[in-house]
Amino acid sequence: MLRHIAGRVGQAIVTTFGVLTLVFFLMRLSGDPTLLLVPQGASAHQIAILRHQLGFDRPLIVQYVAYLRQLLQGNLGMSLVQRMPVASILGSRIPYTTELAAGSLVVAVGIGIPAGVAMAVWRGSLLERSLAALVFAGQSMPTFWSGILMILLFGVVLGWLPTSGVAGLPSLIMPSIALGALSMASFARMTRIAVLDELSRDYVAAARARGLSLGAAVVRHVARNAAIPVVTVAALEIGNLLAGAVIVETVFAWPGIGQLAIQAIAARDFLVVQAIVLFVSFVFIVMNLLADVVYAVIDPRIRLSS
Amino acid sequence: MSVALQVSDLRLAIGGVNVVDGIAFSVAPGEVMALVGESGCGKSLTAQALLRLLPRQVRQTGGRILLEGEDITALPERRLRQIRGRRISMIFQEPQAALDPLSPVGAQVREASGLASVAAREAVRRMLAEVGIADPDRRIDQYPFELSGGMCQRVMIASALISRPAVLVADEPTTALDVTIQAQILDLLRRLAAERGTAIVLITHDMGVVADIAERVAVMYAGRIAEIGPTAAVFSRPRHPYTALLLAAIPRLADEPKSRLAVIEGSVPQPSEYGAGCRFVGRCPFADARCNAEPPPLLETDDGHFSACWHTERLA
Ligand SMILES: Nc1ncnc2c1ncn2[C@@H]1O[C@H](COP(=O)(O)OP(=O)(O)O)[C@@H](O)[C@H]1O
Ligand code: SF4
Ligand SMILES: [Mg+2]
Does the N terminus or the C terminus of chain A have fewer Cβ atoms within 10 A? Predict the structure, then answer.
């Protein structure tokens, strides 16, 4: 088990390193940030001086090695644009994205999993068809579109919820729904398939032959078996949520990592973009490790096989 | 003679076709009755009907099931739950698949006991020992993947019998097991039936298994009973052409266990191909116009020995 986890971490570190390298060179291909930093009408000489100060006149490979060395010392560097440590910029944004991701997960898991179970257990019923319609809406509506529709309806027309910004729980509701809808659909579909699959197994028939009701068999036996594929989806959905956050945070003016990513890319704030890549990779690694631990907790075949 | 289970005129339909078409039998306490027939003849559906656990697309269109004299055919689900596992229970073909892979086996046996924790653990331990599991104190907390197929079937038997039901339905309980394990499990079932007075309906497609364990045998063909009677009588003097051909097809040497059936020419008709008359007509050497037109009734030919054939006399 520990060896398995160590292997997974090693793999993740290699992947992160690759992605980081790719982003490093791609960002620099997109142009030199010096031009965006100097005041309008600066002379070529002034630009050259600033470029030299920032180190952008060195060969790319030298810049790359210098960046890695700095990273290894745990230093994310200074933002060129905001003239602040990248770590503190990121640190000020992470709580907002965490809040939004948590809200979206509540929507995705809280609706998706019960809906998936219900669709499987009451297969062929009116309830299943209604839930299927909900799932279809969740997966087919683009995030920016549902976000704008909600802002118009609940924010502008009805005035029930703030249209944007951060102002306590009410302001979290619409962005969470907009961001969580797609994941909700994924959870519902995966849960439905997993539960249907388990319901057809002999151990369910055997449990019922012992006098368990269908509901009791689902709670005692099916739920844990069906949880295994659902946990896999959960680990992947965190990644999708972070990707979706870029759009949702922009639509709702939510000051999180997604909004920061858009701003930093537009401003060619290289170090901030690179730090965001590192952060997202880190979240991925942690989520997948968590999934591995959950598998081991659920499944004795994994837990006892080492 | 008291009766543990009595089934009369059971009919099960899928999409308008009676795939089980009027079968009847009874089993006495402590008796092992085999229900034998080729794959697809309706054995498993019959088993599921006995526990009132039919798949949703299957409808019961007729017949009655009396469990210790009580008609359970029309009982509501809530009452049926009190009967399942307590008065009638079931074991399956794939013992490992019939156990939840994520629960300890002891917990699954206990589930059928209806007992609270401390007393239950002791009861489960004793039951595991009774079905021949060595070291039950260790096994009770193990998971199905840590046990062999034969041991899993013993666990299933323990879970089926812990509440002392009157009837045990065993649907091909040894088909998935090695020959030596198969013999051990059959011995165990026979012993438990005798010791506990459990009536066993043993479903199989294997005449060798029937000969090993059953006091009586019902031979099914295409959803109907072709012949039923004491095993010794049916084997020594079959009164239905299908049984006679099945018995002729048993190899005398036990080294070809896979080829015991399906040596009869032709193939089993699909439910959609069932005609008005005898369903064996397409493969029967004695078939004539009457066989084609009218289904033969199940009639007593000797004491307790019944056959459904217009030409029983040709087998005499
Ligand atoms: N759940 C089901 N849905 C539709 N048809 C079924 C189902 N179960 C069994 N059948 C059909 O009913 C007939 C009898 O099946 P079964 O009782 O499983 O046969 P056996 O156990 O004797 O091999 C077969 O034709 C089979 O295809
Ligand atoms: S009734 Fe006719 S077809 Fe059917 S088994 Fe008897 S002889 Fe054969
Ligand atoms: Mg079967």
Answer: C
The domain containing residue B269 runs over which residues? 240-316
Q: By residue range, what is the domain housing residue A68?
A: 2-72
In sequence order, what DSSP letters do the residues of B288-315 get, joined into one string?
-HHHHHSPPP-EEEETTEEE--TTGGGG
- The secondary structure of chain B in percent helix, strand, coil, rounded to multiples of 5, reads 35, 25, 40
B86–A202: do the CB atoms touch at under 8 Å? no
Tell me, yes or no, whether A192 and A127 share the same domain: yes
pLDDT, tens only, B157-211: 999 999 999 999 999 999 999 999 999 999 999 999 999 999 999 999 999 999 9
In this prediction, residue B117 carries a pLDDT of 75
Distance B26 CA to ligand 2 centre (A): 24
**CB spacing of A203 vs B99 below 8 angstroms:** yes
Gap from CA of A178 to ligand 3 centroid (Å): 49
All residues of chain A having their beta carbon less than 8 Å from the beta carbon of residue B100 are 203, 207, 220-221, 225
pLDDT tens, residue by residue, A207-246:
999 999 999 999 999 999 999 999 988 888 888 888 889 9
B53, pLDDT greater than 70: yes
- Choose one of B19, B38, B172, B175 to mutate for the ligand 1 pocket test, by most ligand atoms within 8 angstroms of C-beta: B19
Q: Is A210 among the domain residues?
A: yes
> Cα–chain-centroid distance for residue B248?
22
Cβ-nearest to A211 among B82, B92, B103: B82
Do A164 and A221 share a domain, yes or no? yes
Q: Residue A122 sits in a domain of what CATH number?
A: 1.10.3720.10
Mutation pick from B111, B147, B171 vs chain A, by most beta carbons of A within 10 Å, is: B111
The answer to whether A268 and A26 are in contact (CB under 8 A) is no
Clarify whether residues A190 and A100 are in a common domain: yes
**Which residue's CA is the nearest one to ligand 2's atom 5?**
B309
The answer to whether residues A110 and A257 belong to one domain is yes
Q: Which ligand is nearest to the CA of B12?
A: 1
- Is B97 domain-assigned? no
Q: What is the mean pLDDT of residues B14-42?
A: 94
Contacts of A201 in chain B (CB under 8 A): 97
Asked, for residue B283, whether it belongs to a domain, the answer is yes
Whether residue A85 lies inside any domain: the answer is no
Question: How much distance in Å is there from the Cα of B203 to the middle of ligand 3?
Answer: 8
Does the residue A50 lie in any domain?
Answer: yes
- In chain B, the number of structural domains is 1
* pLDDT tens, residue by residue, B206-234: 999 999 899 999 999 999 999 999 999 99
The 8-class DSSP code of residue A163 comes to S
**Residue B152 is which amino acid?**
C
> Is B12 part of any domain?
no
More confident residue, A149 or B164: B164
Select from A178, A187, A141 the least CA-distant residue to A254: A178
> Which of A209, A220, A224 lies nearest to residue B84, judging by beta carbons?
A209
Residue B13's pLDDT is what?
Answer: 96
Which of A198, A203, A297, A302 to substitute to test the interface with B, most B CBs within 10 Å?
A203
User: Residue A69: left (phi > 0), alpha (psi -120 to 50), or beta?
Assistant: alpha
Assigned token pair, A73: 């010392």
In a domain, B62, yes or no: no
Quote the mean pLDDT of chain A. 88
| φ and ψ of B118, to 5 deg | -70, -50
pTM: 0.86
pLDDT band at B262 (very low <50, low <70, confident <90, very high): very low
Q: Test B97 with A225 for CB contact under 8 angstroms.
A: no
ipTM, 2 dp: 0.90
